[in-house]
Design brief:
The complex is a heterodimer of chains A (223) and B (59). By secondary structure, chain A is mainly α. Chain A is built from seven helices and no strands. In chain A, α6 packs antiparallel against α7. The termini of chain A are far apart. With 59 residues, chain B is mainly alpha-helical. The relative contact order of chain B is 0.06. The chains are: A mainly alpha (223), B mainly alpha (59).
Chain lengths: 223, 59
């Protein structure tokens, strides 16, 4: 009998802990997305040059890969997450300015924004409602991401528009997989650090938005 | 090739080098999915691409 009580108590403690990670992740994710929107608007207002995007993405990735993991368990980790997401948002400014200058630019940006939100919310809702375990996707997604980066390097030299479009479509597929994988890890207890969970989900949203912009920009242009 | 493209290529190469061991570990450690698991994943990704197609058509 005592063992039953202990088991129920342990289970409810694990569920409470998972819900806390999920709640904190979504709270921090919402705040970082708002902050990114603010820094993107600031960058557009300051009319930053195109080079800003490249510098911001490289800086953001270096911070996310090498600095954040060291501070993920301290309050400094939250500050670093805001620094990374603010930097990435700032880098988006010149890209958004360039798309806004296209004939159908405003519409393309709005569609990419709405599309990214719908994909993220739809996939997250699926995992949260079914509580399905997508941990089997880990190796496949990481290898797929490496292959996409190799293709992106090749296309820097080859400059083939069709390959660029294919890379963007595959990035959307892989990032959608990462949303399933990351969310499933949070609800199944595989990820207990909400700072790392937030940056993982933020990166998927950022990549889907950029890829959608590219696809809609190429296919939606008149020439 | 300009400086932007060269820096982009170098940055991507650096990320590949850093992420390669992570990918290798994930391949080794992650559980294997059943046919049903993979089918679910394919259907979901198919739905996402269908949605992107709808977005394109509504432009």
């Amino acid at each position: 009998m005592n063992q039953d009580y202990l088991s129920v108590a342990q289970k409810s403690s694990a569920v409470f802990s998972t819900n806390k990670v999920l709640r904190n992740t979504y709270m921090l994710l919402s705040l970082t997305l708002l902050f990114s929107g603010f820094t993107a608007a600031l960058s557009m207002f300051l009319k930053m040059p195109q080079m800003t995007y490249l510098i911001s993405v490289i800086g953001g990735m270096i911070l996310a890969m090498f600095v954040l993991p060291r501070f993920a368990n301290s309050s400094a980790g939250i500050g670093i997450v805001f620094l990374i997401t603010g930097l990435l948002g700032f880098g988006l400014g010149p890209i958004l300015t360039a798309y806004a200058a296209l004939p159908n630019g405003g519409n393309i940006i709005m569609m990419s924004f709405v599309g990214t939100g719908a994909i993220f919310m739809g996939l997250s809702a699926y995992v949260l409602l079914t509580r399905k375990d997508f941990s089997f996707l880990g190796g496949f997604l990481f290898v797929g991401f490496l292959l996409v980066m190799l293709a992106a390097i090749a296309n820097i030299f080859l400059q083939i528009p069709a390959l660029s479009l294919t890379i963007s479509a595959v990035v959307i597929m892989i990032m959608s997989g990462f949303i399933l994988y990351d969310t499933s890890r949070i609800i199944n207890g595989g990820e207990t650090n909400y700072v790392l969970a937030t940056i993982g989900l933020y990166m998927t949203i950022f990549n889907i938005f950029i890829s959608l912009l590219q696809i809609l920009g190429i296919m939606g242009s008149d020439d | 090739m300009n400086w932007n493209e060269l820096i982009s290529a170098l940055a991507l190469a650096m990320f590949i080098v850093v992420l390669y061991p992570v990918a290798k570990n994930k391949l080794k450690d992650n559980p294997r999915g059943t046919t049903e698991d993979w089918l679910t994943f394919v259907v979901i990704i198919g739905a996402v691409m269908l949605f992107v197609g709808v977005l394109l058509m509504s432009l």
